[in-house]
Amino acid sequence: MDMCFYCIRQLASNDKNIKVIATTTDTLFQAKLKNMYHKFKQDLEVIVTDERLIDDITGARIPLTKPWAEVDLVFMPILPTNKAHWMFAVLDIKKQTLLLLNSVRKTYNGIKVLIGIDPFVKMISHLIDHIEIWRKDSDPSTDDSKELKVVLNSSIPQQNNGHNSGIYVIKYVEYMLHDDLGSMPVKFDTAGARLDLHHCYSSTVKSVQRERRCCQPVEIV
């Protein structure tokens, strides 16, 4: 999943046809939030003193990311607390909303989704408020509650098995990146999509290896 999101960040940075100004988190970001939630309930300040989380928001840790204050949307892969199922979350900082795209609504309904992502809503809201992105970027029409409003998208294509959530997340991201989610086909070739991701992964690995070789110090004899 993380390598796929790396490819997405490359695309967002290099493709001039993409009009959406966005960045992403990674799987470690959502894992850190879940692991810290128990302490957060006891002390809200525990997350704002965690330099790793602040680095994620300011773009200092994850390769090719941008600071949240400089983008319109933040794309997030999320594993909810009550189901082993990847979902796609879109944080709109100006509108103070968290859009959730869930590919198995029949077996994992809206109520369960809201329960499963509640820790993320509370913690991300607190983090953004702490670094004052609300004050700088919020839409004047939004309220002053300082907590994200969750929006569940109920019109997106759905998977018909129990093992394709990851590939659906990536396809949602691709269409969102082009601001064209409505044109995503109800059915698509998941095997072909996986092959495309494999090609992207291979290309990315080669690119990273070339960068590392270029950065190696040259020994002067």
Automatic annotation (TrEMBL):
Transmembrane segments: none annotated. InterPro entries: Papain-like_cys_pep_sf, Peptidase_C48_C. One of its GO terms (molecular function) is cysteine-type peptidase activity. GO terms for biological process: proteolysis. Residues 1-176 form the Ubiquitin-like protease family profile domain. PROSITE patterns: ULP_PROTEASE. The keyword tRNA-binding does not apply. Keywords: Hydrolase, Protease. Coiled coil: none annotated. Belongs to the peptidase C48 family. This is Ulp1 protease family, C-terminal catalytic domain containing. It comes from Olea europaea subsp. europaea.
